[in-house]
Amino acid sequence: MMSITTDFARKTPPRTNELSPQAARLIVFCGLLAFWIALALAVTAIA
Predict the structure, then answer these.
(1) pLDDT tens-digit map of 17-47
(2) CB under 8 Å, gap of 24 or more: what pairs does 13-16 form?
């Protein structure tokens, strides 16, 4: 697993001005997760 990540890091040049696809996907995933948690809390608070 470690060799794969280091190999990937070597292949892709670091970009300073834009997000990497992995980082963007992680941000979107965290945002959706937070949204669903907030929705579940709101539903349980109403019910």
Answers:
(1) 667 888 889 999 999 999 999 999 999 999 7
(2) none
